[in-house]
Every structure is written in C-alpha cells, then in structure tokens.
Design a protein that fits this description.
Layout: H1 3-14, E1 23-26, E2 35-38, E3 49-50, E4 53-54, H2 55-79, H3 84-88, H4 92-113, H5 124-149, E5 153-158, E6 167-171, H6 178-189, E7 195-200, H7 209-215, E8 219-221, H8 225-241, E9 247-250, H9 259-271, H10 286-297, E10 303-310, H11 319-323, E11 330-339, H12 347-370, H13 389-416, H14 418-438, H15 441-453, H16 460-463
Parallel strand pairs: 5-11, 6-9, 6-10, 7-8, 7-9
Antiparallel strand pairs: 1-2, 3-4, 10-11
Helix pairs in contact: 1-2, 4-5, 4-7, 4-13, 5-6, 5-13, 8-10, 10-12, 13-14
C-alpha cells in the first residue's frame, strides 16, 4: 500500500458519523487557527428537504468535507508541506500582517510624510532628519507584529553594536525577507532611523511601501553596475555632505538563495576554480568595495558588521509564504563587528576580505544546520541588548496601538472632511507624478540639494 493510500485510510478512520446540528472541528497540524465545518439546520426525518437541500445530501457532503480535511492532515504528516489550497484556509495571520503593514505605509506616507514634502525644497538636510524618524516609527510595527502577535523568536549572538555608529552591514541573503527580519535585531541593538537598504528599483513603484521607501531615501538599484554606480555615488556623497549617519544594508550575493541561484553560483565557482557552496552564494564584491571606499573617504564609516542569518526551523522564502501564514518560528543572527581601521585599504584586498567572510559564513552555517541549529559552537554567547526588555516591550505595545488606530482614523477623516479628501487625492497624485517625472522622491531630494548648494554633482571638490 502506497503512502497516499495509507493516508487516505487513516483519514477515513478519523471521520465520525456526523449528525446535522452538530459542530465538527478540524485543526491542521502546526497551525494556530482551527477551521470548523458547521451545520445549523435542525435534524429532520430522512426524505424531507430543508431550504431546498436534501438532508441526506447535506450529511454526506459534511462527511466528505471532514474526510478531505483529515486527508490534508495525514498528507502533511507524511509529506510535509500543506497544499496551497489548504494553507489558504489558515492564512489569516499572513493576511492580517500584510494588510496592517500596507495600510500603515500607505496612510503613513500620505499623512505623516506628505506634510513635510515642501521642506525638501527649503532644507533637504532637515527634511531627511525628520523623515528618518518618521520612518523609524513604522519600522517598529513589523517587529512588534512578528514577535508579539505571531510569536517569532529572535536570537542574536556575537559582537555587540555600538549604538548610533555609522556602518555597512553585509549579510547572507537566505530569503527575500531577510532585510525586514533584520529590523528585529536593530531595534534592540541600534537605531532603526539609521538604516538604509539597497533594493530593486521596481519596488519603488509599489503604492504605500514604495512611496515610504522613496521618502526614506533607500537606494534603488537595477543590478547593473554601470547603471547603478553614479546613483550609489550621489546617494552616499549626499549622506556624507549632510552629516547624516547611516547603517547601510548590503547583500553582496545579489539575490536570495534558491535552487536556480545556487546553480548559477556553482557554475561561477566551477568556471573560476572556486569552492562550491551549499549554504551561501558567491558574493559580488564590486558594490561592497565601492560603498566602503566612498564612505571611508567621506568620513562617514565607523565599522563593517558582518551578519549571518539562519532559520533553524521553517524558512519562509518569499512574500507568498508570509501571506499564507508561514512565518519563521526562530531567527538567529550572528554578528561580527570589524572597526574601519582594521579593514584593508585597497579595493583588491577588500575584495579578498569579503570572499574570506563568505567562506567563514559557509562553514558557520554548515555547523549550524548540521549541529544543534544555534550559534553556540562559536563560543560567543547571546549579546545583551543596549535597550532594556521593558523599553522594547513598551515600544512594541505602543507601535501596535498607534498603527492599529492610525489607519482607521485617517479613513474616518477622509470620509468626514472634504478638505482631508482633497489633501489625500493631491498627495497621491504628487507621489505618482513625481516618480514618472523625476524618478522618485530620493532623486528629487538629491536635485534639491544640488540646486541649493549649486553643485552639478555632489562632492564635486572630492572628485577633482
């Protein structure tokens, strides 16, 4: 008897005789929310019809549904993952998470960032200072939801952050959501207002999320160095000129670890006589060496943080997994801090330095996944956070409270007041048009700074 047949036989044994008027509950393994098949129709003699439906048909249909649900449970026990159709039934957590973040970013970009847009034309540095702090209030929301509502556990080991220091963060790209999960680490060990991320340029067009990331001056790239170099240069020089500290997150691997990306990485390794990796991809070092060199020359770099991220249980690879409620049970971060004075001076040596870090990551992750699935083997204990547990708890509580009330309140204001409706429409039009005309708020911000300082290119003197 095959595995599927055995599962079907077990499931059929679990289906009890179902009387109309009873309630049958079926809870899928490893999920939180049970789903229930109910019948509220009174029991009547066979042959009668209730609201046009034959009672026997309803009984048989109810038993069939319960059979299907039990088959789903037995299949998951035997084969692992739930089929997508079954998982959608229990994805309320994912829908709640995505919608809460979306509406927060949508209304936040319009009603919290929108009023400060004119300041960009007067003082870009003040505009940047204010926006960084507004963005940080929203960044606490996914942290609060992941830990408080969804029960995600975060473990940080290795070196401590120096609060407020300026750094480049390099991290392996295990899933497409690593950048968001890192906020759980930074909220305890650093300041969220300092973080900047390199993202795909296509993301800036997403309403809400994209508008907020533009206003946050995230660096959007096309993954073609000849197209990205000048933009990197302008953005980094701008932050150096306005003396705005930042912690810039880079993924030298360029993409998340999948079967296809691993195949391409191994082909690259084979063609260049390099070691084949299993837990990381071979890094692309051009962007990393350029950013470190540029920040160092602009005196806006204190350290490089090399972070290794690992997921000991389930690994939600894409946004779709989150939408289906597949959140990581645990996330482990291992931090190595390298002061800027310990980094190699030349780009060639810095490139080799980055390759060495990835060799270490491969060995570290191999020991992690083949061992006890923690970083205790490194000999470095859990890092004490720079913020107390009470402070973090209060911030998470206030974040959930504020953003839960903020979006409905803005909807109410839009409904009640015509002036708010006109403001709402005008700001949306501004967000859409400025991207088509200028390419994004961060581009417009750079242009305003150049115009006010009469510079055709930022840091022109440095480039002479």
């Amino acid at each position: 008897m095959g595995r599927f047949a055995r599962c079907l036989q077990k499931a059929h044994q679990h289906v009890p005789a179902t009387d109309l008027g009873e309630s049958r509950s079926c809870t899928v393994a490893n999920t939180v929310q049970p789903f229930t098949v109910r019948s509220d129709v009174q029991k009547v003699p066979s042959g009668r019809h209730v609201r046009g439906l034959d009672v026997n048909w309803r009984r048989q249909g109810l038993e069939l549904v319960n059979l299907v649900l039990n088959v789903v449970m037995e299949l998951r026990k035997a084969f692992g993952e739930l089929p997508v159709a079954a998982r959608i039934m229990v994805s309320w957590r994912g829908i709640y998470f995505i919608l809460t973040l979306f509406w927060g970013s949508f209304f936040g970009s319009i009603f919290m960032m929108g009023p400060f847009l004119p300041l960009m034309f007067i003082s870009p540095s003040w505009y940047r200072w204010i926006n960084n702090r507004i963005v940080a209030t929203w960044l606490t929301l996914p942290v609060a939801l992941l830990e408080t509502v969804l029960g995600v556990k975060v473990v940080i080991t290795g070196d401590a952050f120096v609060p407020g220091e300026r750094s480049v963060i390099i991290m392996n790209h295990r899933t497409r959501m690593d950048w968001m999960f890192l906020w759980n680490c930074l909220m305890r060990y650093s300041y969220l207002r300092l973080q900047k991320i390199c993202l795909k340029a296509s993301l800036k067009s997403v309403p809400g999320f994209g508008w907020a990331m533009q206003a946050a001056a995230y660096i959007f790239i096309h993954r073609k160095w000849k197209d990205d170099k000048s933009h990197f240069e302008d953005m980094i020089d701008y932050f150096c000129d306005i003396h705005e500290p930042l912690q810039l997150l880079l993924f030298p691997e360029g993409t998340d670890l999948t079967e296809n990306s691993m195949t391409r990485s191994n082909e690259f390794a084979e063609n260049n006589g390099l070691q084949k990796y299993k837990y990381v991809l071979h890094p692309r070092t051009t962007g990393f060496t350029f950013v470190v060199d540029r920040l160092r020359k602009g005196k806006n770099l204190d350290a490089v943080h090399d972070i290794t991220v690992a997921y000991p249980h389930n690994i939600p690879q894409t946004e779709k997994h989150l939408l289906l409620g597949d959140f990581p049970k645990e996330i482990h971060f291992h931090v190595h801090r390298y002061p800027v004075n310990t980094l190699p001076e030349s780009k060639e040596d810095l490139q080799l330095w980055c390759y060495k870090r990835w060799e270490e990551k491969e060995e570290r992750l191999r020991s992690f996944y083949q061992g006890e699935k923690n970083f205790s083997f490194t000999g470095q204990t859990v890092v004490p956070p720079c913020k107390s547990d009470l402070r973090v708890l209060v911030v998470k509580f206030l974040s959930i409270l504020y953003w839960t009330l903020f979006s409905p309140t803005m909807c109410l204001f839009i409904y009640l007041y015509s002036l708010v409706r006109w403001y709402f429409i005008i700001v949306i039009v501004i967000f859409v048009l400025q991207e088509r005309i200028f390419g994004g708020l961060e581009i417009l911000e750079l242009a305003c700074y150049r115009l006010l300082h009469k510079q055709p290119h930022l840091n022109a003197k440095k480039n002479e």
